[in-house]
Structures are given as C-alpha cells and as structure tokens.
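Co-fold these.
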Amino acid sequence: MSLSLNAIWFVIVGVLLTGYAILDGFDLGVGVLHLFAKKDHDRRVLLNAIGPVWDGNEVWLVVGGGALFAAFPHVYATVFSGFYTAFMLLLCSLIFRAVAIEFRSKRESVRWRNGWDISFSIASYLIALLMGIALGNIVIGIPLGADKEYQGGFFNLLNPYALITGVVTVALFMMHGAIFLALKTDGELRSEVTRWVKSAIIFFGVMFGLLTMATFVFAPHMADKMREIPWLFLIPTLALLSIANIPREITHGRYGLAFVSSCCSIAGLLALFALGLFPNLVPSAPGPEFSLTIYNAASSQTSLRIMATIALLGMPFVAAYTVAIYWVFRGKVDTGHFHY
Amino acid sequence: MSVEILARLQFAFTIGIHYIYPPLSIGLGLLLVIMEGMYLKTHNPLYHQMTRFWVKIFALTFAVGVATGIVMEFEFGTNWATYSRYVGDVFGSALAAEGIFAFFLESGFLAILVFGWDRVTPKVHFFSTLMVALGSTLSAVWIVVANSWQQTPAGFHIVGTGVNARAEITDFWAMVFNPSSVDRLEHVVVAAWMAGAFLVTSVSAYYLLKGRHLEFAKASMKVGLSVALCASCVQLFLGHRSADGVAHNQPAKLAAYEGHFESDKPMDLYLLGMVDEAHGRTLGFSLPGMGSWLLYGDTTRPVPGLNQVPIADRPPAARVFQTYHLMIAIGMGLIGLSLLAGFLCLRGSLWKNQLVLKLLVVAVIGPQLANQAGWFSAEMGRQPWVVYGLLRTSDALSKAVKANQIIGSLLMFGFVYSLLLALFLFLLDQRIKEGPLPEDLPGAHGGTHGVAAVLAEKGLDV
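Predicted complex below.
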C-alpha cells in the first residue's frame, strides 16, 4: 500500500507537469517565435491562436505546483526556497507574459505594441529556459543538507548541463509552437510558419543530440534502471520514434499528425526523465543519502489517500471538458474577430 | 530589516494587491449569471448587451487575478518553506480540491464565456457562465477552508517534535468544517458579491450622471443594486456571526479587535478610538457593555481581555483595532447607501438624484477597502502565530533564503504589481468610457438588424 500510494502520486504530479509542458509548451513556443512575425496583423493572428486557451493551460502549472505541495511538501519547500531567485525570475516572467498578451492590442500606438511584443517574447523565452534549467539541475542533483535544505546558491544552478537542458527546452517548445501555428494559420503567414517549423526542427535536433551526449557525460546514472530492466528501453525508443516521426509527417504535409508526434515527444522525454529519477524526486549531489524521495518527502498515507480520491473524482470531468473546449475552438484562427 | 519582517511585508503586499481581483471575479460572476439568465428568460436585448459588456470587464479582472495569483501559490514554498513542511499534509487535500474542482473549471469555461459567443448556442454559453461563476466561488471555498484551518486547526495530529514537528491530517471533514470555516466562508463570499455589485452600480451611476447609455445604465443599475442591497444586509448578520465565532475560537483576536484589555470587565463597543498597547488601555468613544451584549445579550458579562494573554502571544492590537473598525464603518456605510439608493430607485427618483449617484460612483472603493481591512484584521489578529497556537510566524520562514534575496524580490513585486494595477485601472477606464457596444445587441452582427432597429425606433440607447 505504502509503495503504491507514493508511486501513484509520483505519477500524478508527473502527468500534471507533462500536461502543462504539452499544453503551455505551444503557448511558450508561440511566444518565443512571436518576434519573427514582422507585421502587426500577423502578430495578432499568433496571439489569437493561443488566446482562448493559454490561461487554461497555465492552470496545469498551478495545479501541478499545488499537487507537489500537497503530496510532497518537502520537495515543494526545498526546491522553491532553494531556487528562490530563479523562481522569482520565473514568476516575473509568467506575470509579464500574461500581461503582455492581455494588454498588447488594447492601444494602436506602435511603441506600445512593440514594447509588449518584446515583453511577451522575452518572458516566454525565460519561462521555458528557467524550467529547463530547473529540470537539468534535478537530473544531475543539487547539494542538500541533512535538514532537507538546499545548500548552494543561485549561480550553482547555471552549470553547463543545466544550461543545455534549458536551451533544449526552448528549442522543443519552439518546434511544438511552430507546428501548432501551422494548424492555426493560413495563407501567406502559414507559408512563413512552415519555414519556422523546418528551422525549429533542425535547431531542436542539433540541441537534442548535444543533450544526449551531455547526459552520458554528466548524468550516466539516468540510464541505470534501463540496464537493470531492459524492457524499459521501450520508453526512450518510443520517444525517439516520436521525434523522428515529426519531420516525416511534415514532409507529407500532415501537420495534425506532426503535432500529435510533437506532444508524444514531450511526454516521452518527460517519461524518460521521470524514469531516471524514480524513486528520487530531488537527488542530492554530493551526499546522495540526503536525497528527497517519494518516501521521505511525502505527505502521510491518509493525506495521499484522500487526495487520490479527490483526483479520481475530479480528473475525468477536467479531461472531458478540456477536450470539449478545445473542440469548440478547433480550426483556423478567425481573422474576422480579433480579441487580442 | 529581518527576514521575518521582509517576508511578511512581501506576503502582505502581494496578497493585498492580488485580493483586489478575486472578489471582483466572484461578484461579477454572480451578476453575469443573473444578467444572462434574465436574457434567456425575457429575451430583452438589453440584458444581452449588458452581459457582453460585463464579460469584458470580468475577463480583465480574471486575467490580472490569475497573473497575480500564481505568485501566491509559489510564495508559500519560496518564503515560508518551514510553514509549507508543517502544513503541507493538511493543506494538501484542500489545495488538490481547489485545483481540480475550481481552477480547471473556471479557466476552462472562461474561454467559452469570453470567446465562444458565436461558437456555441445561447444555452451552452449560459452553462459556461454558470461554470465560471461556480469555479471562482469554489476557489474561494477551498482557500478559505485552508486559511480557516490556520485560525482554528482541526482534524489533525502533530507528528515529530521540535523543528521536525508537522501536522498530519486525521479527519478530512473535520479539517474542512473546522470551527471557523463556514462563518468565514459566508462572510468572504458575500463580501465578494458586494465588490462585484458595487462595481456595477458605480459604472451605471457614472453613465447616468454623464447622460450616456441611459437605458443600459438603468437596467444595469437595477441588477447591481438588487445584489448590492441583498448582499450588504445579509453581510450585517454574517459579519456578526463571524465576530461571534472569533469570540469563541480566538478570544485574544476578538479582544484586539475591540481593544479590550481587562478580563473581569464587560466589553465596550468602540465607535472610534485608539489602543494604547503599552499601558493596556483604549481611548475613544464607546458604548459601555455593548460588546458583551452583542456576544451574549448581557451588558454586564465579562469578556476575556488581552491582559490575560502573555505579551509575547498578543496580536498587534493597535493596528488590528483600526482595520477592524474601518471595515465595520465602511460596511455600515454601504448598507445605508444601498438602502437609500434602493428606496429612491423604487420611487423612480434615483435617476435624477445627483448626490446619491455620485456617492454610488465612489462607493466602488468601499467593498475593496473593507475587504482589505477585514483580511488585515483577521490575519494580523492571528499573530504572532501562523497556525494558531501551534506554529509561530517567526518559526515558519525559509531557512535557505537570505534577507537580500527578499529585498530583491520585494522590489521586483513592488514594480511589477504597481505596473499591473496601473494597467488594470487604465484598461478598466478605457472599457467604461467605451461603454456598451451597439453590435453587442443580439442580431446586430448576425445579418438581421431587426432588434437594434426596433430599439432605435423606441429611442433606446444602442
């Protein structure tokens, strides 16, 4: 029982954060690409493509953060206070992104719009980069003490491996966002977007290759479990197949399937990350005995059981109406009715 | 300054600014349900135009609310790590419920509420409005439950000792229905309705004074005023119930509210005054024994005072007294104003009464100030505890965070939140000046201009 509840919550937190990466990932990608569109009309199309959904997508982060607090309070406390400055930058970026989307098109002034366009793009870029950096640090481990507190400073976080994961995250979201835009735009803008898709795939491919090599150098332990249990090689295989399938679908002009592949790639990469981590949540390095695991960082069994009941009752509804709402907003951006 | 003061300043500042928006969302949510419901029932195009106008304002408050709200959820971990470890097990279920039942619901259906007018049928749209309103109210439910647990902990036991002690949940429903949660929840939600309703009456009164969009303004005023009047009057009883609960559950807090020191004496009810904490007395105008009468129906019954609380455990009575009395004064003022305006509205003379209309324009500030003052009273009155009687605020901080880091983030939030507030007010002003749009009358942009033409013929404002 003990093993299953803690492991279930590991999976739930993972699913919520994966949901966030897939959903807000394309919003962030659109944000990073935003400045590549030069005309005001085109920029408005991009904003309207994510307009109805970005807010709901961000909620996945809020709920993921809440689930972390609830199920693994020690992880939430240690990481959020330990990465204080990085989290403050992240919060600042999240606020600026939201504000830029909402306020950008409310005035005609070119300076006003350019200002918000730049804010929107830089903020989206920073959000993706910082999350990637956080992920990279978790992979290689951070210095923790016996009191479960973080022992390093802000600049410890900016190590080469984490910077690579940061840039890979940006590249991944750029590709994901570009493919999403190819589904949402048409005409001249769409032919421009398809060029972005190709460049983004190449950028991501190169960075992903670099990350794979860096992982063998800096974090060889990520593959330990696969050596012990060979069928787990299925996960990286599937992740690689999804990634490889993206350019294939694009060559055939099937952007819908390319988007599905892109979603699967994100899920696959995060599954790979989770597999390497399990049962740790925050590995400590040096001093692995101080690592936070799904056991020593978790809430009580009673609490985990109550929350699992709540999640079980609620999540089917959430999934159902999220799909319904995306269905309502399917198809190309309606350029006759700009909201943003 | 110490880490504790800085962390408290940052929390107070960020939550204070954040709390401008959720009450407006909750309140406007209810009003939107009423407006759109009226449209579906009566098919009066004015209600449709009204709903569309207020949806835009709602979307604005919601967006800024989300942008400022995400900070709150992270801030427990960044600045109050020890607190997070202590309460995580208990708060977990409330937070899980909030995320799954409230946040997903409101933000998901918001897309249809704001962008879905032409994509779904009117009934599905109304359902979405209902879900958004329900979602924002549910988010208040769970966050007030969690906050009330900090005031009156229940349904838990303490595991570990010293720095490793933490609360673990034993009984979910006892945690949810802890002694103060129902009282405080009702008080908070009705206060939010007041915030929304007084915004609607303020904007309507502004149009009436300017002689613009008159039919729209009169109809909006009637809806807004009905909610404002009901909510304000109900709040009188709920506020009293809340104070009654505080007297039972947190006597030191109630003593601070009323500046009551001597435990062997009945409690006076101050209308205006100042607490002299150093000498343990309160100066000002009071109704002798009325505090005791309100609580126990007996002007001579003694009420526990601050002097029976060790000095180290006393809340900052001088400040709490003022914020509490400010809240009550504003609440009374709003009851008076809504009764007066309601009476004039029934007699048909409100539309011409410049003075009352001007008061209604300004009154939008009232619920906002009262909300802030009320929460400051509740939270400062809980001090020096972060979890009442169990965990001191000074023990709840993040050990890994230094004062200069908080100074940095405090400056950042000061800048960003001020910018946000300025932008919010600027855009709100722009929306209000733009007014209801003629194309928001049903049929106006669907090809048939029938309804708009009929209204124009009748001389209605389109």
